[in-house]
Amino acid sequence: MGASIVRSRAMITKTLSRTEWEEIPDGALIQEDGIITAIGTYADLSAKHPKLPVIGTGKEILLPGFVNGHHHVGLTPVQLGSPDMPLELWFVTRMVARNLNLYLDTLYSAFEMIASGITTVQHIHGWLPGKLAEVEGRSGDVIRAYEDVGMRVSYCFALRDQNRLVYQADEEFVASLPAELQGPMKRWFERFQLSMEDSVDLFKNLHASHHAKRRVKIQLAPANLHWCSDAALTVLSDLSRSYDAPLHMHLVETAYQKEYARRRGDCTAVDYIERFGLLTSNLTLGHGVWLNESDIGKLAAAGSCVCHNCSSNFRLRSGVAPLNRFEAVGINTAIGLDEAGINDDRDMLQEMRLVLRAHRVPGMEELDVPTPAQVLRMATIGGSRTTPYRETLGTLEVGKGADLSLIDWESVEYPYLDPLTSTLDAVMQRAKASAVKTVMCDGEVIYRDGAFTKVDRTAALKALHDDLAKALSDDEVERRNLSKALLPHARRFYAEYIDPAKHEPFYRPSSRV
Question: Is the pTM higher than 0.90?
Fold first, then answer.
């Protein structure tokens, strides 16, 4: 990687508060072997180091690399035939997904992420058929794709050992189906052959093989409360302590998941997982839409994090997460694009705008709504803190990893931008992915002027296209037919799952969401 100077028109190094940030006009940094060693103005640094190669023209805005704090797949569900619908029914439609080349599939979404300035991704893998050796091999394909394209990844394979389709034991759900669907349903469940012990071995094997790498980390993922038995929660809590490994857990994404926790433990989901020692600073909750005030207080006291998946919550009718309450009590928050953003892609610049605007509740108090500085923090250091990278990334400071993006200023300000508009406001409100000119990860330029420096995007996408042009396999056909046949049964299962007399309405007209 060597050493280089990265220069800019203005460099935003970090946020200082919800309304303040550090900005250096004519800002520049020096990176040596992937670590930032100096910060200052380009005039000063170039005078002291005239022989270092220079990245940037001085006409761009320099920002820390973004962190996608919650990600799952390459091709989006819509691309694979699964339309947006309520989460619990959407699980059934996801059965139609093709048998994918995971290396090529991962590259597809990596291209989109990098092109919007994302340098680190939390990849939460959840559904791979086969035994341990096969799952480990395909997990390796995902990690290799990120290594080849140059991104950092924090990879986890979600442990799920029960209730794998609806919020009911697998065998009970199979028994409730018509006889002609029971065989195909059993075959679908039998595809997934990892035992809980296998999942533990998978984590240990991946950790031993990859965790010491600079651009790869391995962490844990309790898939969700309804997917994890008490035994699984115990094992994962113990593993997290033994390895000091962060955990990323989907929780109360929907009102149905809130009701599941009540039925299982006569308490909230947060109360339930607290019994297993999971409420620590190593825990991140994905979504957290239906947390109550007591839950939020417990997360704040424990130093736990929340990853806000705004687009996904809208697309799958999950609700509006109480982001403003998370922020008010000091919970560290991140931003995740989940399966895909609001435009069915992985554009972090657009997702930040959505987060900025989705929580602008009525009123006059400035503390009630997100700010550009707050949202930038969520997309950078806030996301990094939810991964094993923790404080080593997310800001442009001496000693931190050299992960960054350069955004063309002219495309932001043209044809006119009043000087009263701050640099950060302008970037947050107006910058498009097309304005991202250069992306650097670990001191290496991995994207420049629309081209990826390490992988041929055109060739990779053609290979993915050609692979999916083949005819459907027998198991793909059976899963498509099964998905269609199961949908009315899933609707019936959830039709009376929630008693409206015992629960708050789905629409929560809170001034603090």
Answer: yes
